[in-house]
Structures are given as structure tokens and as C-alpha cells.
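Technical annex B. To support the medicinal chemistry partners, we prepared a structural model of the target in complex with adenosine-5'-triphosphate, based solely on the information shown next.
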Amino acid sequence: METSCSKTRNPFTGAEANAVGVKVEGVSKTYAGTEVLSNISFDVLPGEIFVLMGPSGSGKSVLLRQIAGLELPTLGTIRVDGQDPSLEETRDRVRLALVFQAGALFNSLSVYDNLALYPREHRSGTEASIKERVMHALRILSVEDAVSKFPSELSGGMKKRVSIARALVMEPQLLLYDEPTSELDPVMSATISEIIATLKNEYSVTSIVVTHDRSLALTIANRVGILMEGKLITLGTAKELAATKDPALVDFLYPKIDIQNPRFKKLENQKTP
Ligand SMILES: Nc1ncnc2c1ncn2[C@@H]1O[C@H](COP(=O)(O)OP(=O)(O)OP(=O)(O)O)[C@@H](O)[C@H]1O
Ligand SMILES: [Mg+2]
């Protein structure tokens, strides 16, 4: 039976109306015979901030691409507001934006044209109103000086901010962030956390945030899911996660540097006098 994500009041945020939910059911993904996602199921409630964490290579970006409808799962179903996100009609109806891990700006377009692309293509507003939206988004991310530059002229952190600004210009109902704070300094990381929280609180935007940033996760998440080797090994509130005693989770969340580790000893021995 098709379960639609109804627009009920979100028990965590109280959000309603505009917000959309996401349902991931029994999703597996296999590339050339290798399974990288294994039977993943979870719901993201309308207006919720859902954080996905996990070691490098655990399948976070792959899962985000399936939710964005850019790839199809090998098995299982994904629904955004009750509809298949890979269908054009869903993408026309639900404003969904993905902030890619590596930015994914168009190199041949200026920052301004990168941001104006979506509203121009969707004929949403006059050029003057598009300009206002573009400049507003760039200002929020303190990157308005880059407006006339091309992506190749930007630092990694600036590219990241410009790609978040591009997502904001789309006025999304569902925002998918892949590592939004990597390559950013602590002040800018805090700004990004504020933006994600503000979009939730003021505009009922549903967010799925993939991150390695534990403090970002534990600060803004309503719930956190942890992926390891393609499996969703735990799902709970940020508070539950912070209090976990599960040794595998503790090791992942609070890694210790063991200077007695033979790897460090080896480095020590290589030191030149
Ligand atoms: N298009 C693809 N074709 C084949 N294998 C892929 C493809 N995309 C991802 N993979 C593999 O799927 C696994 C999960 O990759 P993914 O990019 O989702 O990891 P991740 O959890 O996002 O890691 P990181 O934290 O380093 O970004 C990896 O083993 C990767 O090599
Ligand atoms: Mg990734």
C-alpha cells in the first residue's frame, strides 16, 4: 500500500502546511554487484531536521542522491510528499534542493547566473525580483562580493556558501545538504547551523543534513540516523544519541587518539633527528 506523507503537525517542530515529509522504505542500492545501501527504512517528518551521520564510504551521499530523485534505488521505494522524487511532476510540484558535497556549480556561469538559473527556468518573477532574491541569499551567506566571479575563482569554502545560497534562492520545501559545513571555518559553520534552524522554524522547511560535524548534528537535529557500511544502525533524537553507551557509536562519535597505537609509533620512528 502506498503511504503518503500527510501534512500533519510535526510532533518535534509543530510545523504544518507547507512542510513535506519523506518516506524511505526498504531501500537498497547496488553498483556493479556491490551493495552500498542495505534495506534502509525511515521517515522524515514534515518540518523536521533529520541528520545522517556515518563514516566515510558508509553510503550517505548515495542515499541523499536517491532521496533527491537523481538515482533510482535498486530495491525499495522513496516518497517525497507521497510521490516518487525521480518523476518530473513531483520535482515540479515539490521544491526540492540538494546542496552537493562538492558544490556542483556550473563552471561556465558566473555566481549570479548560477543562482538565477532556477528562477529564470521556472519563470518565477521578473529579472529585478530574481536579482533581489539572489543578492539576498548571497548576503545571508556573506558571499555577495563573489557575485560576478566564476566558480574557478572561488575558494572551497566560498563555493560551499554559494551552493547553499543557490539552494536558498529556490525557496525549497525540502532541503538536502551534503556536508554543509565541511571546508568552512567555525564562525561560518555556526552561521550555516543558524540558517538550517531558521529555515525550519520560520519556513517549515524539511531538512536532511549529511554531516561528519558532531556539534552541528547534536545542536540542530530533531533526530539523527547513523549509517555504517550501508546499514542504518541507529535512529534516535540528538539527546538519545548524545547519551548512548553503545561502544560502536561512542567510538564513532567520540574518537580517541591513541598515541600508543603502532601507527603513531611508526611515524615517530620516521622522524629525522
Ligand atoms: N556512482 C557510483 N558507482 C559505484 N560506486 C559508487 C558510486 N557512488 C558511490 N559509490 C560507492 O558507494 C559507497 C558509498 O559512497 P558514498 O559517496 O555514499 O559515501 P559517503 O558516506 O558519502 O562518504 P563520505 O563521508 O566520504 O562522503 C562507496 O564505497 C562508493 O565507492
Ligand atoms: Mg559523501
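Notes passed to the chemistry partners:
The CA atoms of residues 260 and 266 lie 10 Å apart.
Confidence is low (pLDDT under 50) at residues 1-16.
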